[in-house]
Every structure is written in C-alpha cells, then in structure tokens.
Amino acid sequence: MLTRADLERGMRSLGAIAEQSLDDAAFARAGVRALPALVAADLTTLSICHLKTGRREVTGFPDERLGAEDRACFDRHFSEHPLVRYHAVQRGCGAHRISDSTPFVRFRHSALYSEYYRRIGIDHVVAVPIEVDDDVLVSFVLNRKGRDFSDRDRELLDRVGPVLSRLFAALRAPSRTGPPAPAVRNDLALTPRERDVLGWLAGGKTDRDIGAILGCSHRTVQKHLQRIYEKLGVETRTAAVMRAVGPAPR
Question: Does the pTM exceed 0.90?
C-alpha cells in the first residue's frame, strides 16, 4: 500500500530523529515531535512501562496534554490496556491499534476509555514497540480523536519501527556498559561472541543490557548462555561466572 513518497517521508522522519538523538532522552523528545509529521496524531508519547512494578515514564508532545492526574488515571488501568497486553503479554510484533484488538464500540464502554481516554479527548491509539522483554515495554504511542489510524498508517509505522528500535538500543548501550567486562579465561572452549556474553555476565549485566551492548536481542543472549552452560558443564549463571573468571585447573 505504501508509495515511494510514503517511504521518503519515513526516511526524512528517521533522519530528523537520528540527527537530534544525542542520548535516549533526546531521542524521546525528537521522536514524539517527528512522528506526527509522518502519521497525523493529536498526542504522541514515548512510554517506558516497567512491567513488574506498573511504573511508567512518559515523554509527550504536546506535553501539556497530560497532567499528573491524567497519568494516574492511565496507570490504574495499565495491566488491562489492549496495547500493553498485545505487546507485553502476547508478545505481538509491529505497530498495533486498539481497534485491532477490540472494536471501538466495545472499547468506548470500557473503564479505561471512560476514565482516561474520554478525559483527555482521545478515541483511537496505535503503538509502535521499540523494546520489549520481561521487564520493560518501550513504545511510541500515537493518539487521535475521531478518526482511527488506517492500514496505511500502521504499515508506515511498521517500516520505521525497527530502525527506531535499533537507534534506541544503540543510544542506551553506552550508559549500560560501565566498566570493562572482566577478562574470561583463555582456556575455555568458547566462541568470541560467547566470550563477550560471558564477560559481560561476569560484569553484572542483565540479558537485556548485554543485548544492547552487543547489538542483539535479549533472547539471542539467552541462547548464547544456554550453549555456554552446555560447554562449561554448569547449570546456573553464578557457576558460569565462577568458571569464567576463576583460576584455570592445574
């Protein structure tokens, strides 16, 4: 459905975001301003949802649209939100509209709509996930009143989403790296990438941190760890780390 002009607009939007993204905070500010020029929206946010605590960090444009009480209303219905459930629970991929999960006629009778979306004057929402794992869901969320997002809108957001995801991971990696990873023993029969994973594990990094540092997903990190455990004959992260940095057997 997309035309060459659509793709060129997408590239310009990505270029504008990348040019202004000196760090992850600047990335959020640039993204919420640039994306509405690509897909029209009345309110755009970058939402970082901490899934285990229900805590959220939100960067919005225009920022004055959401006050503290508005955000508290949203948070009360966080776990039941159709987009949170689709991306974080069902692990659905790509841009997704609320109307893809539930008809608007049903959604507008929900407590989430009555207490939050009606309050802020929004009817339709589409979210573009840029980081998802067991701990966090990070998404750009576009909101508007009256007219739902089209299939074309969703497809265009699908095209820019993976690039935004890679840019976000690259920006967050330096802050997660910290001190160099401890040296891994030379006598272990591991591939260079497995040594990198094990070294950062020994440095106290989480699977998500390691993925950001190495430019891969946390699931890929977990697959590397499974092979590392098999090669080292261990079953736990602690045992693997002890083998990695401990003295070589005599």
Answer: no
Cβ–Cβ < 8 Å for 90, 58: no
C-alpha neighbours within 13 Å on the C-beta side of residue 97: 20
From the list 198, 199, 200, 192, the residue with the least C-alpha distance to 176 is 200
User: Hey, which residues does 45 pair with through a beta bridge?
Assistant: 60, 141
CA gap 250, 248 in Å, rounded: 6
Q: Can you spell out the DSSP letters for 170-197?
A: HHHHHHHH-SPPPPPPTTS---HHHHHH
Q: Collapse the DSSP code of 54 into the 3-class scheme (helix H, G, I; strand E, B; otherwise coil) and give the result.
A: coil
Token output for 20: 């202004």
Name beta bridge partners: 132: 137
- pLDDT tens for residues 60-119? 998 878 888 998 899 888 889 999 999 999 999 999 999 999 999 999 999 999 999 999
What are the residues whose beta carbons fall under 8 Å from the beta carbon of 74, sequence distance 6 or more?
56, 81, 116
- Distance, in Å, from the CA atom of 29 to the CA atom of 20, rounded to the nearest integer, reads 9
Q: What share of the chain is helix, strand, coil (3-state, %, to 5)?
A: 55, 15, 30
Quick one: how far is CA 137 from the chain centroid?
Answer: 5
Q: Which long-range contacts (CB under 8 A, 24 or more apart) does 234-241 make?
A: 237/201, 240/198, 240/201, 241/198, 241/201, 241/202
